[in-house]
Amino acid sequence: AVERTLSIIKPDAVAKNVIGKIYSRFEMNGLKIVAARMTHLSRIEAEGFYAVHKERPFFKDLVDFMISGPVMIQVLEGEGAIAKNRDLMGATDPKKAAPGTIRADFAESIDANAVHGSDAPETAAVEIAYYFPALNIYSR
Ligand code: CMP
CA nearest 8: which of 73, 68, 65? Predict the structure, then answer.
């Protein structure tokens, strides 16, 4: 089915100047960018986005990292977009990410891991709504 997923290019990858290289991977693999926005998240915004991880030991470091610089946030649309984006990203820990994936090629550590992608249809819907009101999504 055609799906939408939320993608974030994290501060490490924005600082490395590889937004275009990552966008090319999306486009070459049938994922269309239907909304996009560069922003420097506030602590409140980052904590709200990652609220499901609130009790995890890495929560504070994760939020600190996500507000350390600007991020590029996009909605990707395409056949099986959620799983396809996760395949393109590779494992959360770049040391475990398969060769040729975004995290293997651009990420440094489990915190500075270049990209975020929604993990399921339910989380994709919540995450897209968090950053993009429907009127700012330009499908087909
Ligand atoms: P992301 O897909 O953005 O979702 C939560 C983030 O927490 C994850 O990528 C990692 O960057 C970060 N993180 C740090 N430590 C861990 C961990 N042990 N397990 C999962 N995610 C972690």
Answer: 73
What distance, in Å, lies between the first and last C-alpha atoms of the chain? 15
Q: Is 139 exposed, middle or buried, given 0-12, 13-18 or 19+ CB atoms closer than 10 A? A: exposed
What ipTM was estimated for this complex? 0.96
Burial of 28 (0-12, 13-18, 19+ CB in 10 A): exposed
Residue with CA at minimum distance from ligand 1 atom 20: 92
Residue 5: helix, strand or coil by DSSP?
strand
Dist. CA 21 → ligand 1 center (Å):
22
Cα 5 to ligand 1 centre (Å): 17
pTM for the full predicted model: 0.97
* Burial classification of residue 96, based on how many CB atoms lie within 10 Å of its CB (0-12 exposed, 13-18 middle, 19 or more buried): exposed
84 assigned to a ligand binding site? no
Buried-state track 35-46, b at ≥16 Cβ within 10 A, e below 16: bbeeeebeeebb
pLDDT tier for residue 17 given thresholds of 50, 70 and 90: very high
CA dihedral 51, 52, 53, 59 (to 10 degrees): 0
